[in-house]
Amino acid sequence: MSEKYLPVVAGVAVIGDHMLRLLFDDGTVGDVDFSGERWTGVLEPLNDPGYFAQVSVDPEAGTVVWPNGIDLAPEPLYEQAHAHPLVAA
User: Fold this and answer.
1) Which CATH architecture has domain 9-83?
2) pTM of this structure
């Protein structure tokens, strides 16, 4: 990731119990797999696949968010998505 680029999540799709497909404003599209995560504390609701699937994009914050206000920093999401990009056939 460029030091000058601040990633902004432009779109999100749930593609599995704890998997997201993310679109960033620079056109990067990639998958982020959270299936190995075990969240605790305020993040604990994300362990429930049904709740996890309620994810949406917060256009003001430029990242993903859940109904109770949980959000994730876009920079590590971008790095993970960039590591697992979707390539047009």
Assistant:
1) 2-Layer Sandwich (3.30)
2) 0.89
